[in-house]
Amino acid sequence: MRARLEETGYLVDDGLATACFLALRLHRPIFCEGDAGVGKTALASALAEALDAPLIRLQCHEGIDASQALYDWDFPRQLLHLRAAEAAGVKDADRLEGELYDRRFLVARPLLKALETQPSVLLVDEIDRADDEFEAFLLELLSEFSVTIPELGTLRAEVPPVVVLTSNRTREVHDALKRRCLYHWFDHPGFARELAIVRRRLPAVSARLAEQVTALVQALRSQDLLKPPGVAETIDWAQALDTLGANEVDAELAVATLGSVLKYREDAERARGLDLAAVLAARGT
Amino acid sequence: MSGVGVPVSENGGPPGPPRADAALLGFARALRAAGVDASAERVHAFLRAVHELRAGMRADVYWAGRLTLCGGRDDLERYERVFTAYFGGAAPAGRTVTVPPPPRLRLVARAGPMPRTVARDEQHRARPAAALASSAEVLRHRDIAELDSAGREQLRRLLAALALRGEVRRSARRRPARRGEVDPHRTVRELLRRGGEPARLRRHARADRPRRVVLLVDVSGSMAPYADALLRFAHAAARGSHTEVFTIGTRLTRVTRELSHRDPDLAMAALAAAVPDWRGGTRLGELLRAFLDRWGQRGMARGAVVVVLSDGWERGDPELLGAQMRRLHRLAHRVIWANPRKARPGYAPLAAGMAAALPSVDAFVEGHSLAALERLAAVVRGAEVAFVEGADRA
Fold first, then answer.
1. Residue A183 in 3-state DSSP?
2. AAA+ ATPase domain: from which residue to which, for each copy (chain A) (predicted)?
3. Are A145 and A156 spatial neighbours (Cβ–Cβ below 8 Å)?
4. Residue pLDDT, tens place only, A162-200
5. CB-based burial of residue B310 (10 Å sphere; 0-12 exposed, 13-18 middle, 19+ buried)?
6. Is the same domain home to A34 and A117?
7. Residues A215, A93: one domain?
8. A196 and A264, same domain (yes or no)
9. Of A186, A204, A236, which residue is a domain's last?
10. CATH of the domain at A176
11. Which stretches of chain A drop beneath a pLDDT of 70?
12. Is the CB of A75 less than 8 angstroms away from the CB of B185?
């Protein structure tokens, strides 16, 4: 499992590899929590690539409901069908009515699409933004992997999709939903792992630059910042410096490009007060 | 990778040597004793996971348990501790043991070395474990509930009259309305119902939704005479789903769940058991920062109406409080400060904390009486309040 994920360029540790393995075997969703930019959403795309399955994404937002997430009837097409039938002189009203609620008039939204596509990876992104009602609805779907459409009957996934739920913890997700999932907390990676990730993602960047940037970000993260930078920011920073044609970074250049990692004025000020040159020197580069 | 079902025995556990299962069940029990909510369903998943991994390795058992038995970041530290205690000392070889989460991200944020700094007579109560909050303490905090009949009548009126709703904002959703844009969906459905004959156009318009309300209730010693009444106010307010309640003292505690109980007395009892820092000191600045780091900035305070119920007596650095209030003010739609002491004759916001906080406050109101709390509810709903400096009082 781990080797297959790493082939896609997504590095996993033991815990996450175990989680993915169990998710596939036990058909349980993985519930991912952690700071922004630590690779929660990227996990789903890596899984999709590793399993060679399409990734179906449902972005949650306030007020999301079943017709946006599950299915909807295609009214204009139904109407068109009626008109066509009328023009052709179809008289069998009962049959016509039955035809109206045919599968082809059903617009599959992400959740239904995930149940129908096999195999597939379903990403329910930022579940904490949706309302409680939607959570309850999702709970029902994730425990049975089936949907009942009143006009059509029950649709069931023979092979349940691999489900990844992510949350940024703007509110606590209900325990009933969490209980059905494998819980994984994403920590910021250590120096060696983060360096490996940067090298894997940006093969064009010089080894020295990657090492220096990773060391700087690790140093920044140990400060008491409003928003500690995630791995995504490390990659952004390395890329920004590489675009500037730098093969290595000094304190001056680091301060000039600080905007790629720190997004708050207070944080940037604090970082400027840091002795960045010392951090670079300590790394022995 | 195939979807082949796992053979599971009748009693829910996978077939296997019963001794190993007994050890795992014992571990789950130990976890439960340590405060992790390892329900039967989770334990079942744990056993299946161990079986699936054919775990002979310590590391596999570790991850199987961590993935299935924990339900939140706060559980991870406890899990780490119980796992080490139960399965023996050394950390699993060849892996980095996850560091315990940094304290500022935890549900209960400490403002200092906990029990020892608290006054002597409070030592026994300052223990964080919920189980140790004595029944005597619960009784003590219920005191105000045992009011005379007149007081109780007043309280009931307070609870009945109060429905704290946030100021409304326009939402992204549309609702059926008499005027507004044409609603294609309902119009087409209406047409369909009439067999395609022209019908009345259906319309919809943007709906209004109340904003989220966040209450931060000071439960420190200086607020003791008001704490119970204010928390009952919070209980009435928390009936809606758009309200979050925290207590601040020497720690930050989220009590929304405790207050969700319908019966006020039961809710107050649950709350007394959950809040470890009754009548201690106040570290407003630090706790406000903990709130913003842990909850506020991630979304809870964004666009919300934030109400601080406190007298502003800050033991920590007022400069820190001022900085955090500015941060809060930038995030929130409106910041309201209710100070029960404001009603006293001759009150001026001289307490260092209060003075530091005031520039970032949109409305500064009283909070000492039923009428004042009703007024506060109106302000939260969006009523204009003439921003009153301390010298001016109603």
1. strand
2. 26-201
3. yes
4. 999 999 877 778 888 888 899 999 888 889 989 999 998
5. buried
6. yes
7. no
8. yes
9. A186
10. 3.40.50.300
11. 283-285
12. yes
pTM of the shown model: 0.62
Here the tokens at position B266 are 């039961």
Please give the residue range of the domain that contains residue A214. Answer: 191-282
* Same structural domain, A82 and A37: no
pLDDT of residue B158: 55
Contact assignment for A25 to B73 by CB distance below 8 Å? no
**Residue located via tokens 């300052």:** B126
- For the ranges A87-91, B190-194, B256-260, B357-361, the one whose mean pLDDT is highest: B357-361
How many residues can be counted in chain B?
Answer: 394
Q: The complex's ipTM?
A: 0.70
Residue A225 at interface with chain B, using a CB cutoff of 8 Å: no
Task: Give A-chain residues touching B76 at CB under 8 angstroms.
Answer: 185
* One domain, residues A118 and A15: yes
Selecting from A27, A169, A182 the residue whose C-beta is nearest the C-beta of B3 gives: A27
Chain-centroid distance, C-alpha B208: 25
A65 lies in the same domain as A199: no
* Cβ proximity of A214 and A195 under 8 Å: yes
Chain centre distance of CA B385: 28
How many domains is chain A built from?
Answer: 3
- For the cut 70, the answer to whether the pLDDT of residue B148 exceeds it is no
Confidence of residue B295 (pLDDT cuts 50, 70, 90): confident
Please check whether residues A42 and A147 belong to one and the same domain. Answer: yes
